[in-house]
Amino acid sequence: MSIGLMTPERYRAILSEYDAILAHACAMSDRLVGRTVVERHLSYAETIFTKLLCHAISLRKLSPTPERSSPPELWDIGAACAIARTLIEAFDALAYISLQTILPPERELRILVWELHDQEHRLHMLENIGAAGPGVEEIRTSAKTLHGMVTTHAFYTDLSNDMKGKIAAGKAPAYFRSQKDRNAASGINHDYYISVTTFLSQYVHTLPFALSQLTLTHAGDSGALQVVAMPLQYSMLFIAKTIVGIGSLWPHAQVQISADLLTILDRWLVLAEQGVKGVGR
Fold this sequence. Notes:
Layout: H1 8-31, H2 40-62, H3 77-99, H4 104-128, H5 134-151, H6 161-168, H7 179-186, H8 190-204, H9 208-215, H10 222-249, H11 259-280
Helix pairs in contact: 1-2, 1-10, 2-3, 2-10, 3-8, 3-10, 4-5, 8-11, 10-11
């Protein structure tokens, strides 16, 4: 992923690579249709996988195809980066809840704290707008029940005092493991992860970095192609990791991989683990 001149030919090659990875992931999803899932972490995995694929498909639809573009077409670079950022967050959740190799008690508590965060977050939003009624009370009751299940769980004593304090204050975090620890458990180079998410976030938010880049690029030129290619490239790494993860959860969902696609996936998986600096050594 060098920052060299992005020619239309190179960009089309990236699109072709993305299409191949996405098609393979969708084929795996098709094999999960109709499957009965009992375990909670697998049920969540199936839903998150579908969500991640929806983002991947939307990103592809937003990514321009040069030969089909006709000036003065506008390329929504910010939206592409936002979707790629959301796709990465979906992988984070998938890995944390379902893919990482941990003991059952910790997985159970991860899900409980995750669900507690959801209920408390909903409750705080409703309280902030002065909402009332049976629906609000149901959420409040659910939050209290989950809070009790969390604080009496056998693995709760293993949490840091900081995490326990947040939970006691009614501000349970979605994750009680740090991003750095989660990346390590997922085989993701942390420095590369931070670089990727920071880049994408610059375009999600209306900040000087994004504005300065957008004023220097026009749809169809090499600078614009370079920018629109980045969300695709960054996403491919996490789709590749997802393919491996889903295959480990459901071996029957694995689809035969061509030699060319295997080479592509291996390259992204190496980048995920080593980062750009590691690959360049």
